[in-house]
Request: fold
Amino acid sequence: MAELDLRQDLPNIYSNVEDNEALPLFVRFTNDDAKFHDKDAAVSFEETVAKLTGIHECYFIHRRQKGRTKVYEELAIKFDDLPICMTAQKARDGFTLRAPHFTEKNMVLPEEREFIVRKCDLKFVDLHEDSFKLISGTGTYWLGHVDELCQFINNCFDLPIPPIEIQIEEDKEMWQAYLDGLNAILENKRDLIRVLSVSNQKDGLLRLDFDMESYAQNLKNAILEELNGKCDQKAQISIEDGDCLISFDSYQTIPDDTIDNIKTIGRDYCYSAEATPINTVSGAISIVSDQDELNEIVASIDKELEIFGEVINKDEDGQLYLNNDKSSEILSKIVDTHYHGIATVVNTTQIVMPLVPVEESIDIEVLKGNLPEQAQIKPYGKHFVVSSKRPLNVDLEIFHNMRFSSCMVNVSLDQIDANIQIEGATIKGNAYSWIINDINELRTAGRLFNEVRKRYQGQYVNSMFFYAFAPQINKSVLQELKLNFYGNPSIVIDVPRSCVIFSPKSKEHYNSIKDAFLEQLDSSINATAPEYTPTAKIDFLCENEEYRRGVFERINVALSDKKGKFIGNKLSRDAKQLTFEFVFEDIDDRDEIEKILQESLASIHGVKIIYDDNNNKGVTNWSLSEDPSLLQELDRKLQSDFRNECVNYINGKEYDKLSNVDEDELNSTHYSKATIVRRRRQAYLKSSSYNLGTCIRRCRDYAVIEVNSEMLETMRSNEFRISTGDYIQFPAMGETMELMRQSVAMNRILKPANKYNLSPINPNLPNFIFDPKYAAETVVNIEETKEDIRAHKIGNLNEKQLEAVTKSVLAKDLALIQGPPGTGKTTVIAEIIWQEIRRNPDCRILLTSQTNLAVDNALERLQGQAGIRPVRIGKPEKLEPEGRRFSLPIIRSWTEGREKYSVREDLVLGTADNATKIWIDRIVNKVSNDPKYIGAVGAWKAELIEKDKHSRTEFSRLYRSHVNLVAATCSICGSPDFYYSYVDMFGECNRNNMFFDVVIMDEASKATPLEMAVPLVLGKKIIVIGDHKQLPPMMDETTIDSALEKIGKKDLAEKLQKAESQFKRLFEAAAKIRKTVVATLDTQYRMHEQIMNTIKQFYQEELAATGGLKCGIIESMDIPDLTNKGSRWHGISIDPIISPETHAVWIDVKTPETALNPGYKNEGELKAIDLVLKALEQAKGYKEFLNSQTKPEDKEIGIITFYSAQSREIKKKYRGRAYRMDVVDRFQGMERNIIIVSTVRSNAKNNIGFAKEIERINVAFSRARRLLIVVGNKRQFESNNDYAASIANMETVSVEQLRDAVR
Reply:
C-alpha cells in the first residue's frame, strides 16, 4: 500500500475547486485499513478510493458502532447514486475523518431531519499527513475558514441517530449473538473417537478403524455433560449390549428440557429413550415370627393359667391336653385379652374310634381249611396270627376280609455269634428277628433267611414267619358310611384304617356327633367310643399360612387404586414374604403409596417393610436402547453428512494424561476434578488438534481419510504417525449438522462475501432483513394486478387476503404478511404459490416453516391444482398424509414397484397415494372416451391405467424434472437430503448455489434467526408470514444462551431470552416506511364470534382502518348442525354453566397459587378443571357432539396452562385420556373445538407474572373453535386491562356453581 498513487505529494490537491463551491473532505487511512478491506472485499481498497476521489453529492448520517471494548461514534456517508457507502470516525484535528470502511450497499436515507446533504470534494490521505499542509492546498477560502469545516463535521455528529439505525445495530448484535452461541455449541459438539487400528489403502488413502468403546464413552460423556449442574446427585451411566442405563442411587428429578436434550443426544447416537425416567421403590413386606417373643408369650400364658388354678399338660410340639371345656374357655379368654391380633387358640381335639367287625362275622374253621400247607392260624386278642415256615402271599382270597397289620420273621440257629450283626435284625435267644409293618416290604421277607445262611454256613438254619391280621369290615360298608357323613368336618371316616375321627368343639358337641354316628352303624360293626379328652394349641397368626395370605390380600385391596403402579409384586410360596416394586411420578405420589402401605399394615403384628438398600426414597432409572431404524438412518447420514468434512488428529497419550489431577492442584482451586479435566481438554483440543485431512467415507466403526499434503509429508518422513489409542475428531452427528448449516447461513447474512463466504442468493438480503427500507419498493399499479388475480384465483379470497396475495406477488425483495389467529394464512399461501407459478411456470418456490404440519396444510390446499408440481422433502413417517404423497422416497418406492415403504419393522407406509400416480390418473380422466379417437389413444390409455414399470419410471422422471414447488421445514433446508433432492430435480449445482425464485416462510414470528437463516439465503424474493401478536420464538435455555454464558457473554444471553421476533421488528418498521410490502389479514374463520371478541383488542391498531378483527363465519356460526363446516354451534348444555348459546366462559376460582422452584401450580384450578370435565361428560348434547366429529383431534379437549408445573400435574392426572395437554407456548399453531385454560396465578399482590404478556393471552384464548373455558381468579386478572377486555366478553360462573352443577 506504500506504493499507492493516492499518497503522492500533490502541491495543489484542490486546485479544481473554486472557493466554497464544494466542501473539502479529507479521509485519513492506514495500511491496516487497506489490508482489512482487501481481506474480504471483491473490489480492492485502491480501486474503491480511486472511484470515490473527487466531487460527490454526499449524504451524512450519524451512527454508533459497537466495537469489542467500546461504542464508537461514526458517520455513514452515501455518495450520489453509487452503490457504495462509507463509514468513518472523526479525526483529532476536528475537520478530517479517519478509519474508512466501505460496503457495497445502496443506502436508503432516513427521515429528512436525520441526515445532512452537502457537495463534497473527497480526498483520501495518509493518517499522519500534516493538517496545515492539507488545508493549505484547498484554496484561499478554506484556508481562512477551518472553523467552518470543523463546525460542519460537528453538526454531522450532532445529528440524532435514526431509530431504524439503532434497531439495525441491535438486530445485528442479536443475530451475531446467535451465531457466537451457535459456534460455541459446535465447538463443544465435535466427536472424539479413539483409533483402534490404521491401514493404508490405494491412492494414498488412510483407513482408521475405531474403538467402539470410545463411541460409547462419547455418548456417556455427552449425557453426563448435559446432566452436570442439573441434578442433585451424580448419575451412573452404563452402556452394554446396545442398552444405556442412566441411574441414580436415590430419587432424582430431571428438568423437562434436560430430558428433551438427552433424548436428542440419544438420537444422535442411534439410541431411543423411554418416554421419561422411571422412579421406583422396591423392597419386601415380611410376616416374621420372633422366637424369643413367642417363648415369652407362651410363658406368660402359662402363668395366667396357674392364676386360674389350671394345670395343663403340654407335649414338645406345643399341644395342650385340657382338663375339660372350661379349661379351653379360660385359655381362649387369656389369649384373646392379652394377645389379640398376635395369637389365637386353635381347637385340635381329635377322638379316634376304631371300627371292627363283630366276632361272628369271621369263621376261623373256614380260614384254617383254606390256608396253605403247613400254615396255622390262631386268634390273638383282636387279631389273628398266621404262622408259616415259608413266606405267605397276603393277597390270597382267604385274606380279603382281613387287614394286614404286621409280620415278624424269626430265623433261628443252633448257636448265634453276637458279633455278627445283620441290618434291621434284633437278636432274641438263638434267633434273628425282624418286624415288617409295611405290606409293600413283604416281598423282601424271603431274602432274610438267605442273609443268615450266608453268615452261618456250617449250621442248620430254620425260619418262621408270623403274619398278624385284624378282622376287617367290608370296604363297601365303610364307603357307604363315609358317604353319609361326607362334607361334615366333625365326622371323618378313615376307610383304610377302619376308624372314625371325631373333631368336636365341646363335650356336648362330641356326645351329639358320636350318637349321630352310632345310629348309622349296623349289627356287623363293633365300636366303642373313647372318653372325651379335649386338646388345643396356641397358634401364632404370623405362622398361619392362611392368615398370611389374608394379610397380603388386604394389602392388595388397600392398594387397588394404585395397582397400575406396582410392576414387580411376587408372593413367596409359603406366603411369608411379598416382594414389591412400584413406580411413582413425584414425591407426593410416592408418599401417598407409602402411606397406604403403612396404614394397611398398622394393626398387623409381626409385619415389617424392608426396603432394598434401606432406601425408602426410591431410585431413578432411565434407559435408552439402540434403535435399528436410527442405525439404518445413521449409515445413510454418515455417507452424506461427513463426506469432505475436515477430520482432526489428537495425540492419545497426551490427551489421556490430562485426566491426571494431583492433590496439590485440587487443593489449590475451588474447581472440582471433573471441571479441571474438562477445561484442560477444551484448551488442549483448541491448541493441539491438527487437521488430518478430509473424510472420504464414514461408517460407524471406521472412516477412510484423504490425508492433506502437509500431514502426508510428515508421515512419509516418519516425523508423524497415527497409533492405536490416538483420537480423531469429527463434527458431531445428528442435530449438530443442522447447527452447522445454520452457522453457514448466518455467516452468509452477517459477514461480507469472499471466496470462503458466499453472499445470499439475493445480495440485498443482509440489508433488508434488518431494515425493510432497503427492500425494493413496488412501483406498479397494485389495483390492476389485484383485479388480474381476482379473475384467476383458485380459492375464495376476502379483500385483505387478496391484498396480501397481490403485494406478495408484486414484491421484488420482501413481502410481510401478518395473519391473526384463524385468518386463513394457509389459503393465502396456496394462492401466492399459484399466482407466482401462473405468472412464471418455470419459477422455483420454496415453502418452509418450523413445523411439518404448517407445510403439509398448505400442500393440502394445492392438491389437484393443475400446473403446480410439489415435492415434499423430509422423513416420510414424520409427514402428514397431505404432504407424504409428494415425498420423493414414497414416489421412488412406488416407481420401483414397491407398494410399501418400510421405515422400520413396526412402521410401514403405503405408496399408492403419491404425486406421480395422481398425475397419471388425472391424465387418464382427461383422455377422451370418444370412439373415433380410440385407435389413436386407446393403447396409450390402457398403459396408463395399467401403470407398468415403464410408465411409472417415465412419469416419475418427468414429474421430478418439472417440479416448481419444494416444501420442507426450516431444519431440513440445506441438509444433504435437501441438496441431493434439489440436484435430482433441477440438475447439478454447487451446494451454495442452490436458489429459489420465491421463498415463503410461514409461522415466522415463532422462528429464531437460526431457523430463518437457512431458507432465507436461498431465495431471490422472500415472503414472510407470521403474527407478532402471538408468542415469539421459544429459546432453548440449554443451548444458545447457556453457550454464550460459557464464552463470557452473559449480557447477550440475557437479551436473547427477552428478544422479540425478527418478524415483529421487520413488520413494524415496514408498516411505516414500506407500506407496499406489508399486509394484515382481518377476517378470521376459526372461532365463534364470542371467542374472537376475547382477543380482538390486540389487533385494533393494525386493523383500525377496516374496523378491527372481523368474524368471517358470522352467518353460519350459529347453525345448529354439527356437520356444517361453517357452524361453531356445540349443542352442549349443563345449567347454569354452559348453554348452546355460550361460547366463552370464565370459571372464577380464588384458590391461592403454590410457588414451586421453578414455577407455580394451583390445586384449586386443578380441581376446577376436573369438575369442568365431569360437567362436560354429564352435559346434555356432549355425546352427540363427540359422535359427530370424525377426526380424532376434533374429539379431543385441549387443556392449556401458562406454567409447566401446572401442566405436569394435568398430564399426570389425565394421562391416557383423549385430551391434548400442554403449556401455551407449545399449543401455538394448534386448535381444538373445546379449550380449557388454567391461568394458575392467584395471590395477594395481584401479580400475574408473564401471564400478562398479550401474546400469551392471545394464543391461549384463540385456540378454541366452539367453546372456550378459562379457569382462574377473575378479580386478579381483571386488574390487567388486556384481561379485563377479554373477560368482558365472557360469561362468569363461580366454582361453587360449577360444583353444584356436577352430580
